[in-house]
Amino acid sequence: MVFVHVSEKEGDEPIELPAEEDGTLLLSTLQAQFPESSGLQYRNVDTKAVRGVRSNEGRLYSPSEETGWGEYHYFCVFPKKNKRQSEDNLENSTAKTKRTEAHLRCFDLIVLGLSYNTTEQDLREYFETYGDVVKAEIKKDTRSGHSKGFGFVRFGSYDVQMHVLSKRHSIDGRWCEVKVPASRGMGNQEPGKVFVGRCTEDIEADDLREYFSKFGEVIDVFIPKPFRAFSFVTFLDPYVPRVVCGEKHIIKGVSVHVSTADKKNVQNKNQLFQTNNYNNLDNNFKMQPANNFRMHPANNFSMHSFNPHGYQMNRVMN
């Protein structure tokens, strides 16, 4: 059996693809290893130019009838549209990653409830058990030089920072609170929640958690039941929603819409759902008077509309 040495790009390590008995290489065999490829090229040893391999009706033919495929190293040809699309996706992904990294930077965390005997060295040594500590500072009184009972710490890794925020800390025998300073506009470190719209029933909570975890630690995923085509994802870091909102997100092949989940928006969405339910209920139970009662004078009934709950029918006594 003859094998053809093929790689995706020139210079990559090739793999061997089996040729047919007539010496041709099936395009389906090539695409099984290199999806969306449409042909092969190779570099001529003498001219140093790139040459294409002849293709006809789903078969690729060797460059020479005498020597066959030879010892050439072949590389794939892809349609320009797909190649450009792949490059655009790579550029968009890179730009998106850079924007995310620019937002998700480390900042000073305030440490409250420290013992007055805790030193900056003690503070640094404690938090170095989590990761690289860039800064460890104890706030002191300017006159006495004594500790004020709180300090600041900054880490070199965003992941470490979020891990520290999610834990309880006992430093020198005292339970301390580590939080984001109110000066960053995050108040009491409330988690950040986003609304995820255009969901399909195939997208489960684990899928949402796995996808959004690359932006920050996910502490909750809520999918309403019965299914309503949207969900909520809650991050530990309240700053993450600013990063994910406005970006393009594709989960399991579905382009979902991500927006902030403030209380007003949540109430509006719930109200809309309730309204739709009431409308459906109303459509199911509408009464058509003509379909239920056909009144004839001979029946000796008269109708009065003063009853607040509907029509009242009284027998006319002779």
Overall pLDDT metric: 79
Q: What percent of residues are in strands? A: 25-35%
Low-confidence stretches: 185-189, 280-295, 297-303, 305-313
The CATH superfamily label of the largest domain reads RRM (RNA recognition motif) domain
Helix content: 25-40%
Counting H and I runs of at least 4 residues, what is the number of helices? Answer: 8
Apparent shape:
elongated
Order of helices and strands: EEEHEEEEEHEHEEHEEEHEEHEEHHEE
Structural class: alpha+beta
CATH architecture of the largest domain: 2-Layer Sandwich
Distance between the termini: 109 Å
How many separate domains make up the residues?
3
Query: Using only CA atoms, what is the Rg?
Result: 35 Å
| Biggest beta sheet attributes | 5 strands, mixed
Write down how many β-strands occur, each being a DSSP E stretch of 2 or more residues: 20
CATH class of the largest domain: Alpha Beta
CATH topology of the largest domain: Alpha-Beta Plaits
**Spatial strand arrangement across the major sheet:** 2-1-8-4-5
